[in-house]
Amino acid sequence: MGFESILFRDLNTYFINEDKIKEDNLEENEFFVDLNLDQIINSIIKDKQEEYNIKPFFYLPLNNIEDIYYRQEVMKDLENPKLYELITTFTEKMHSMRLHLHLVERLDYKYNKQGWFLEAVKDYCDAVLLISKNISLINLKSNGFLSFRKYIDNYVKSDYFISLKSRLDEIKKELLDLEYCIIIKGNRVRVQKYNYEINYSKEIEKTFEKFRQQQVKDYKFVYTTNTGMNHIEANIIDCVAKLFPDIFSKLDNFYNENYNFLDDKIKRFDCEIQFYIVYLDLIKKIRKMGLQFCYPEISDSKKEIYDIDGFDLALANKSFYENSKIVTNDFLLENKERIIIVSGPNQGGKTTFARTFGQIHYLASLGFPVPGSKAKLFLYDKIFTHFEKEESIKTLRGKLQDDLLRIQLILDKATPNSIVILNEIFTSTSLQDAIFLSKKILEKIIMLDLYCIWVTFIVELASYGSQTVSMVSTVSPENPEIRTFKIIRKEADGIAYAISIAKKYKLTKNFIDKRIKKE
User: Fold this and answer.
1) pTM to 2 decimals?
2) String of b and e for 247-283 (b: at least 16 CB within 10 Å)?
3) Which residues pair with 9 in a beta bridge?
């Protein structure tokens, strides 16, 4: 199959309607804010969104393993510095082309527009020839780039492109070779053909060249090229066009016949490749912090999933500018294990760990390398999150009722292929009621056989069944007030942190007994 897209293995599989996938219309994607995915996306597209409108691509996770691997292969090729540099140069020339086309749209005078149109076509031809010539020298492995290379090679050999380039060169040469005189007398301007009059500028420069002793300031006036003509300049060019009707007729025909010169597939490639570039630029920066990324193996069946040395990408991106350290963590679910119960002291990294779990799965569904040194992940259908929200007076519901309704909506929509992330729910009710309600929800989650990560103060959930795994945020043994931000797989006894605090303040039974004896 010929080249269609560098992002989609088969365009017909994904019907992209930007009006439907804009962030404001994605009600089902509330998890973006909960997982801080919105922070990641907004930070990396901020300089590209206006020109390329790539944001919708980040809201369209892939639902097919082959489609994900298609993107992974493209990204691996793009990590080759030679290819990255080539693509960057190509996109810069295409950017210059668009600037010239935007200028053409704003200008009023006919030949002014057509002159800048020639520059836009030149940028385009230079970009196409550049990538066609140099991409053949790079060892490519991805189907996406191999298909694009074949397409671009055929394109530069097409009759249309050959004609476009030859006519462009011919017209530009004839325009550059034009010679004419402008005679200004008072407020009158007369334009006539150059009749081999003496060029006194050259004679003057030649005469005074012998007096030059050192480098001096150049007082020549440089005309700006980022604005259009004024009415006087436009009238002069109109007069020149009358003097040389043949070449300006060619320019006129070239403009009218090639106004839509930009190839649709090359245009799409130029836009879509930005999706990879912005993410690759991000991970290059994060790797400087000593953190790792890997291309995960993707599974669409209930098997082992894991990530080694994972981390919260939004937090890492923020920490890069603050020069703060990022702690990595692992997770593993195997056999019947589906649910991670995370407990431990407050401010110990539990919520960050839960976000990491969701981020990694979502980034993998976009075809990106994910935080970690090695990973195997699940091809989910939907991600659901329940993070604490403030009570809203508009709903006329209490916190507990709101929690229950939100959980019910999640469980009604969830399937065995879904991922559910719960963070500190039922904090507004008694411990006894929280345990009762949590166990009921846990039963439903187990029955659905979906993947879940649950941050909770209810340690009883950690040993509810063979489907649950207990992970605990740890503190420094010497000082329990210091969080290590390491989340490890261990039994949740609910007292380890309390014992550490008691030891610090000498309130354990042994310390108290010693005090009593002294007294």
Assistant:
1) 0.86
2) bbeebeebbeebeebbbebbebbbbbbbbbbbbbebb
3) none
Match 């560098």 to its residue by tokens: 6
Strand pairing of 383-386 and 419-423?
parallel
Please indicate, yes or no, whether residues 324 and 404 belong to a single structural domain of this protein: yes
CA distance 60 to 68: 12
Tokens describing residue 417: 């292929």
Claim to verify: residue 308 and residue 229 sit in the same structural domain: no
Give the torsion through C-alpha atoms of 209, 211, 214, 218, to 10 deg.
-50
Measured between alpha carbons, how far is 145 from 148 in angstroms, rounded to an integer?
5
Range of the domain at 463: 292-518
CATH number at 506 reads: 3.40.50.300
Rounded distance between C-alpha atoms, residue 90 and residue 76, angstroms? 19
> Is there a domain that residue 370 lies in?
yes
Tokens of residue 100, six digits: 């010239």
Same-domain check for residues 416 and 480: yes
Specify the number of domains making up the chain: 2
> DSSP letter string over 106-132?
H--SHHHHHHHHHHHHHHHHHHHHHHH
Residue 81 lies in a domain: no
**Which residue's entry shows tokens 């009604």?**
412
Do 235 and 310 have their domain in common? no
Find where tokens 């309600």 sit.
437
DSSP H or E segment with residue 419: strand 419-423
Note down pLDDT in tens along the chain; length 519 residues.
Answer: 589 999 999 887 765 544 444 344 444 477 999 999 999 999 999 999 999 999 989 988 999 999 999 999 999 999 999 999 999 999 999 999 999 999 999 998 999 999 999 999 999 999 999 999 999 999 999 999 999 999 999 999 999 999 999 999 999 999 998 988 888 888 888 888 888 777 777 778 888 877 776 666 666 655 555 567 888 888 988 999 899 999 999 999 999 999 999 999 999 999 999 999 999 999 999 999 999 999 999 999 878 999 999 999 999 999 988 888 899 999 999 999 999 999 988 888 999 999 999 999 999 999 999 999 999 999 999 999 998 765 444 544 667 888 889 999 999 999 999 999 999 888 777 888 888 999 999 999 999 999 999 999 888 898 888 999 999 998 887 777 788 899 999 888 665 556 555 665 677 777 787 777 766
Q: What b-and-e string marks burial along 405-425, b requiring 16 or more CB atoms within 10 Å of the CB?
A: ebbeebbeebeebbbbbbbbb
| Alpha carbons 465 and 122: distance in angstroms, whole number | 68
